[in-house]
Q: What sequence folds into this?
């Protein structure tokens, strides 16, 4: 989109504001707030993996329920966008439904369950199975933006560690894990190095999703509303999980299992307890993709 | 069995919201008017305005009604409403010496210039249930009003300003000097910038002023009880209305746009100055409405967090500021109710792997 088109659209949106629920501005936040957030996003894109502090606004959805992601989505969205929202991979999950209801009410956008049809996908704890393309944006909700929080409680100190690329304690943490358990025990929120510089928390996605961040076509935006940080992985950026030569990064093991609905053997599977006897059955976590395959 | 993961229960969610609205309206009693909440539950309204950080008594009362009395939820609604309003500007620094006083006490001196003014407080009441209130009607209220107003003198002198206890102490060199802030300096705005630590005092005071009463109380009390006690004395506590002034957009002259009810607390604590001279230092608390517990807790925490080497949670600025925002803490604590099955599966994967490694090692040990 050209700059003048964008500006004209902004004008249109402002006029459109009158028709939005309860007299709230288009996109809920006032224009100054949306501009402020877009500036922080630009900075985040310019410094891949760096957590940009920003003036996080209060959303009518609680802190910890995706307010960082919602603010990013609302600051970017226009009536032409097609939005997909998932929680744990599922379009129909409680929180995804709630967020969609809110964004639809204040931004009047079209909603889809199809990853490939969406222009903006907002997600909590998953990256869709289908590879996204250059024209799309994936917005990830982040509870803990600081990958070093496991080893250092103080924010002032972790900022210093990032500034000096002082990551020895993180490496030591992984090493001690191996000494204690024979393997790195970090399950989700697996720390990654972005663009060879910053160690970054990829949000609580499973390890399964981490490789999708590496040299991708898509822009990934991360929003932590409560902790007031925005960060980004631009397209074609290296994203490497922390690993040792003799203890390499491994994704979750689903060998021998398949989706009981669509039969997929190459997707992240939810484990469901089928009966009181404890029998297990597996389904695709990405419900949109499973629907498509089952149709 | 059905395919549970796809159908998240959109209808169920909508019905849960409707059911909540139904719960508070299903009883046989008269609907609660917003004015009733504002006038009769004014301390709840004050608390919600403070924690929601929006001075709007009517909206706070509405929020309390909508939230069925939950102060966290009500404050949260006010905060969310803030996000829809543009930032027009900042007020001029207010002077609490010009406060229209409702209540003003000092525990540092038996009497103070201008006098101790107890005002409306529950401090000296016996906390016995008043069963007369079970039948609180207009006739009872009118009779009570008679008893209140009959004995009052017609013209009571109300001074425009009352001197501050800290001014007297400062004049005598007993209290550290005030930090000299140029009046036209813009404050750090925590609603527009993310706080970086160590936080400037204007950011710290803003954070504390919108802090959750119980959270501030817990940390302040931990200090008073022994985890880093600073031995505070309540120099002065004021409740009243302070004029709110802005710089007139055309003339640039101070222009009064209204007044806000605030509680202000100033605590004194011993401190050795950088010049080696022992003095009192000041901990400052100010919040919307009448919320004395909060203002006192805030003042104590303002003072404790100035420790150069924190020795306990209440002295650690990052610890205090990050963990006393009720709306953030509440949202995050509630978010554990959201589904976490993907994360949990990833956890299970690691646990099973760790178990299999442990079992292999056991086998090796046995062999």
A:
């Amino acid at each position: 989109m050209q700059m003048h088109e964008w500006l004209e659209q902004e004008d249109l949106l402002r006029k459109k504001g009158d028709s939005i629920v309860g007299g709230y501005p288009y996109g809920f936040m006032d224009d100054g707030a949306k501009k402020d957030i877009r500036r922080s996003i630009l900075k985040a894109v310019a410094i891949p993996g760096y957590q940009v502090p920003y003036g996080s606004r209060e959303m009518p959805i609680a802190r910890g329920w995706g307010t960082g992601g919602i603010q990013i989505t609302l600051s970017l969205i226009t009536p032409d966008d097609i939005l997909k929202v998932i929680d744990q991979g599922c379009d129909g999950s409680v929180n995804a439904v709630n967020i969609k209801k809110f964004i639809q009410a204040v931004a009047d956008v079209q909603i889809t369950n199809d990853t490939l049809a969406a222009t903006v996908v907002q997600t909590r704890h998953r990256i869709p199975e289908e590879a996204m393309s250059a024209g799309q944006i994936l917005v990830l909700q982040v509870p803990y933006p600081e990958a070093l929080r496991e080893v250092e409680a103080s924010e002032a100190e972790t900022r210093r560690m990032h500034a000096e690329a002082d990551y020895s304690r993180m490496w030591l943490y992984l090493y001690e894990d191996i000494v204690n358990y024979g393997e790195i025990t970090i399950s989700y929120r697996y720390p990654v190095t972005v663009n060879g510089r910053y160690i970054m928390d990829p949000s609580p996605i499973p390890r399964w999703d981490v490789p999708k961040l590496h040299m991708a076509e898509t822009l990934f935006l991360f929003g932590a509303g409560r902790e007031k940080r925005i960060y980004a992985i631009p397209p074609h950026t290296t994203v490497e999980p922390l690993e040792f030569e003799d203890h390499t990064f491994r994704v979750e093991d689903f060998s021998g299992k398949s989706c009981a609905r669509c039969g997929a053997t190459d997707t992240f599977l939810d484990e469901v307890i089928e009966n009181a006897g404890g029998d297990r059955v597996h389904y695709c976590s990405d419900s949109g993709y499973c629907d498509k395959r089952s149709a | 069995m059905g395919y549970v993961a796809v159908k998240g229960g959109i209808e169920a969610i909508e019905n849960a919201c409707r059911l909540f609205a139904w719960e508070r309206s299903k009883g046989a009693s008269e609907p609660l008017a917003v004015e009733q909440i504002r006038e009769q539950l004014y301390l709840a309204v004050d608390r919600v305005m403070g924690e929601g950080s929006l001075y709007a008594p009517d909206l706070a009362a509405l929020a309390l009604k909508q939230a069925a009395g939950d102060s966290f939820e009500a404050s949260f609604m006010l905060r969310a409403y803030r996000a829809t309003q543009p930032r027009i500007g900042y007020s001029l620094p207010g002077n609490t010496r010009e406060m229209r006083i409702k209540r003003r006490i000092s525990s540092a001196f038996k009497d103070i210039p201008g006098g101790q003014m107890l005002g409306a407080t529950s401090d000296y009441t016996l906390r016995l249930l008043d069963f007369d209130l079970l039948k609180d009607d207009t006739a009872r209220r009118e009779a009570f009003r008679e008893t209140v107003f009959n004995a009052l003198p017609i013209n009571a002198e109300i001074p425009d300003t009352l001197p501050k206890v800290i001014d007297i102490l400062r004049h005598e060199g007993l209290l550290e000097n005030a930090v000299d802030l140029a009046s036209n300096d813009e404050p750090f705005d925590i609603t527009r910038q993310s706080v970086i630590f160590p936080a400037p005092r204007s950011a710290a005071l803003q954070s504390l002023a919108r802090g959750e009463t119980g959270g501030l109380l817990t940390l302040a009390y931990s200090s008073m009880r022994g985890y880093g006690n600073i031995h505070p004395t309540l120099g002065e506590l004021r409740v009243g209305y302070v004029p709110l002034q802005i710089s007139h957009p055309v003339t640039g002259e101070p222009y009064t746009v209204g007044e806000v009810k605030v509680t202000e607390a100033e605590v004194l604590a011993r401190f050795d100055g950088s010049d080696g001279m022992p003095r009192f230092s000041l901990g400052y608390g100010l919040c919307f409405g009448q919320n004395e517990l909060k203002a006192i807790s805030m003042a104590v925490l303002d003072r404790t967090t100035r420790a150069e080497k924190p020795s306990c949670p209440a002295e650690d600025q990052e610890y205090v500021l990050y963990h006393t925002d009720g709306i953030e803490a509440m949202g995050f604590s509630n978010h554990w109710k959201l589904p976490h099955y993907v994360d949990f599966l990833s956890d299970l994967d690691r646990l099973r792997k760790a178990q299999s490694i442990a079992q292999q090692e056991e086998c090796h040990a046995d062999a």
Notes: DSSP finds 13 helices and four strands in chain B. Chain B has two domains: 11-82, 96-329.
